[in-house]
Amino acid sequence: MTATPSSGAGGPAGTATTAERCLRTVLVVDDSRLQRRLLSMLLGRAGYRVMEADSGEAALALCRQAPPDLVVSDWMMPGMSGIDLCRALRALATGRYVYFILLTSRSEKAEVAHGLDCGADDLLTKPVDAAELRARLAAGERILRMERELSEKNRLISQTLAELQAAQAMLDADLQQARKIQESLVPERTRRFGESEVNLLFQPCGQVGGDLVGAFSPGYGTLGIYAIDVSGHGVTSALMAARVSGYLSSEFLDQNVAVTRRFERFFALRPPAEVARLLNERLAADRGVEEYFTMVYATVDLRSGRVRLVQAGHPHPMILRADGRREFIGQGGLPVGLLPEARFEEIEARLAPGDRLLLHSDGFTEAQLPDGSLLGDEGLGELVARVTPERSGRTFLDELLGHLRQATGTGMAAEDDISAALLDYRG
What we know:
Layout: E1 2-4, H1 15-21, E2 25-29, H2 33-45, E3 49-53, H3 56-65, E4 70-74, H4 82-91, E5 99-104, H5 109-117, E6 122-125, H6 130-184, E7 190-193, E8 196-203, E9 211-219, E10 222-230, H7 235-247, E11 259-262, E12 266-269, H8 272-285, E13 293-301, E14 306-312, E15 318-320, E16 326-328, E17 346-350, E18 356-360, H9 362-365, H10 376-386, H11 393-408, E19 418-424
Parallel strand pairs: 2-3, 2-4, 4-5, 5-6
Antiparallel strand pairs: 1-3, 7-8, 8-19, 9-10, 10-13, 11-12, 13-14, 14-17, 15-16, 15-18, 18-19
Helix pairs in contact: 3-4
């Protein structure tokens, strides 16, 4: 087997074509030395780098070492024929496509079809016409150029996809950790405050959410309970929710804006309207923060059952009376952080032993039913009526969530965060 370097094509008009073709290698395979030399001469003048092989076996060995761009092979050869070489070449894992031209003295359609079926890209009838050979090779070059461009684009796409997958894996890991941190904001689903009990429900629609529920007590028979829904979804809302949770911390009352110190000796709860005003001022002071949140915040005197409540754009709280009656309370109001000078009004209610106070997010009332309508307050009341009244607070919320999923047909999925805080008042 021999290899012959290309001989460039002269003339200014052919310079670009020659430079381009010098990048292409053609393997000429023929058991006739004269035929090989003739083809090599034609290809060398056309600007190709030429390799020669005197048999199919020798050509296959060359292809294993350094695959050419194009192969021009005789069909009929002793030992491995051109068809056999073509099949073997296609089976090689060369990592690049090789354009294969078969030379044959036959011109029958059946023979042409058979050659193409075996993997050949083109057939050329002997004796070879120089102009036709150059034209067939030029066509092969166009196909190779498109194939190489496509392969490069696929490589770049695969590389980019791998980078995106790696970035997504890192993001998922971060979101998983963020979810754990956010779940730590609601460390206890059930908390006792004297004889009364508060149960919390938090189900984000994604890995993290913008809802927040909680309760705290400075002692002395008083309780603060809240439900918050930050505008938007995802990481930004979750960050805002985490920040707001620090303003209403149950662990560090000295940092809780809803609590004030009295006589340097004990803590007391601020009025709900004042808490909403303080939170609104803090959000208004943060430059560049466009998020706002809706909120229901209530203070409860656990001895008398007196409830003082502010509703800042949040869905209406519900009182579930011990005798089975259901009452929606509240006057609406503006969300916190929407307007710097927003004013917030309080309302009052009274709980009797055995009554329940339910604070919930719009993940309940704005849940979409199969007919396209929203559940609304009336629909939520109907879901509450389906829950067995004797259920414990925690079981009550779990069963209520199950009825919601059944009504919407969403199963475990939800389009919005779902949260609730339930106070079982026992006097």
